[in-house]
Amino acid sequence: LGICYGMQAACEALGGTVGRAETREYGRSSCDVISDSSLFSGVPASTDVWMSHGDQVTTVSEDFIPLAKTATCPLAAVRHKTLPVFGLQFHPEVTHTPAGSEILGNFLQHECGCSGTWRLEDFAELAIESIRHQVGSDRVICGLSGGVDSAVVAALISKAIGDKLSCILVDNGLLRKNEASAVIEEFSDHFKTDLHVVSAEDRFLDVLAGITEPQEKRRRIGATFIDCFADEASKIEGARFLAQGTLYPDVIESGAAADGPAATIKLHHNVGGLPDDLQFELIEPLRDLFKDEVRQLGINLGLPEHIVWRHPFPGPGLAVRCLGEITKPRLDTLREADAIVLQELRDAGLMRKIAQAFAVLLPVQSVGVMGDARTYEDALAIRAVETEDFMTADWSHIPYEVLGRMSTRIINEVRGVNRVVYDISSKPPATIEWE
Question: Which residues are catalytic?
Answer without folding.
Answer: 4, 91, 93
